[in-house]
Amino acid sequence: MEFSIKSGSPEKQRTACVVVGVFEPRKLALAGEMIDQISNHYLSDIIRRGDMEGKSGTTLMLHNVPNTLCDRVLLVGLGKEREFKDKEYRDAVRAAIKTLNESGSLEASVFLTELPVKRRDTAWKVEQAVLMAMEGLYRFDRLKSKQEEMRRPLRRIVLNVPRRTELAIGEEAAKQGQAIADGMNMAKDLGNLPGNICTPAYLAQQAQELAKTYKLKIEVLEQNDMEALKMGSLLSVARGSRQPPKLIVLHYQGNKKQKPVVLIGKGVTFDAGGISLKPAAEMDEMKYDMSGAASVLGTFKAVAQLKLPINLVGIIPATENLPDGDANKPGDIVTSMSGQTIEVLNTDAEGRLILCDALTYAERFEPEAVVDIATLTGACLIALGNHASGLFSSHDALARELLHAGEYAVDRAWHMPLWDDYQEQLKSNFADMANIGGRPGGAITAACFLSRFTKKYDWAHLDIAGTAWKSGKDKGSTGRPVALLVHFLINKCKVN
Question: Rounded to whole angstroms, what are the CA distances from 221 to 88, 262, 395?
């Protein structure tokens, strides 16, 4: 997909389609009014007859509009003007892209980016338009024997900004949006692959290809390397699988003078729960349990494309969690790389067992900050649903940075408590800690467990169990929280 930025009059666009907005009830936005005037009120006559009310997300394609240079004009409903905010803007762009793609338009000039959105500037509107367009065009059908036939796909979008002085701002925002979308698409592709293809070795291979493309440094630690490091917690999870575990370590060096930010992504490529076996229903969705790892790789791709002046380290502990004669058993006690011992009361709480060793491994990089990303707990899904990722951190400044980035990116997180009171639930009679703390506050006690391995640096944890994928008829990976992470890193560059 090609994106370009212009500042021009809608009635002068020589293109396949011009996209303009209509507010409810039946009010043309400025670009629509300009076309309406030159076309002898062709648009307002149609609206007056009730063909387009302006309800949010509705569309109406018009052909042969008088006195225009374009082939078609697409009217997009915006909802009520006084209620037009982030969601309505994104819904309008999403609806426009869907209609354009279904109509077979090869190109379009979009004037929705000129609309005023409360508390949002041109850069935000352009970036979001690019993201919504890329989301609308995303398909994952590589594993189907016969791919669905589509009409000619949309190839070029011109996003119009209100003033010529904003052209450079728009171009930079479009470039940023494209990089984030490419990173999200990589994360989606990895998440959507089945567990028989996307194994720990496959994740390592994809990381190596990413490193080769963008000239990144990479290390892939094998089982014997992890044994030498005494990563007993991570390796205990891998014992039930025939697939050997991998510890993938990526390095992006955009500013050698600074301490690195470390991103750690949970890479359980399939999670059957181990001996504490999950119910069969919807177990297929456990191929998404490596979404944290996918988001780290997607973020690296976006950062490398943008050439951000930052040092970044990515750590991905990758394994499967399956039942086997050699698998973890409830009641087993394992020793982590940190030397702390863990009583495994539930083998399905395996994400924290692999992350804790990765968190200890991160100490060697003397990081400025560490953020781990994991589909860690069903409890977080119950607490926050599918809209917000759970954010846990005992460092308020770091938490604020992540919250701010998520708010801007519309990839939101919610700051959850991480009080010492919850640590009591992890007590064990036989080891330093248990790997679960019971049903109450399950997402919080999981974060409390991880916090015990993060004493030497500023740390935050993103629980993306509710945001990493969609279930039902739209089942698939979402690519979250790549947008949040990229904006977090962009803001880091501005501060430093």
Answer: 46, 17, 30
Residues designated catalytic: 278, 352
pLDDT tens readout for residues 168-185: 999 999 999 999 999 999
* Fold annotation for 181-495: Aminopeptidase (3.40.630)
Helix ranges (H only) for 386-470 are: 396-409, 442-451
**Contacting residues for 429 by C-beta, under 8 A, at least 6 apart:** none
Q: Do 62 and 43 meet the contact criterion of CB atoms below 8 Å apart?
A: yes
Contact 194, 142 (CB under 8 A): no
Average pLDDT over residues 341-351: 98
The H or E element that residue 18 is part of is strand 17-24
DSSP codes of every residue in 84-106: --HHHHHHHHHHHHHHHHHHT-S
Q: In CATH, which of 3.40.220.10, 3.90.180.10, 3.40.50.2300, 3.90.1720.10 is domain 2-160?
A: 3.40.220.10
How do residues 200-247 score in pLDDT, each as one tens digit? Answer: 999 999 999 999 999 999 999 999 999 999 999 999 999 999 999 999
Q: DSSP letter at 283?
A: G
Question: Predicted confidence band at 147 (pLDDT cuts at 50, 70, 90)?
Answer: confident
End-to-end C-alpha distance for the chain, whole angstroms: 33
For the full predicted model, state whether its pTM sits above 0.90. yes
Query: Quick one: which of 320, 302, 45, 29 has its CA closest to 181?
Result: 302
Estimate to the nearest angstrom the gap between the alpha carbon of 78 and the chain centroid: 26
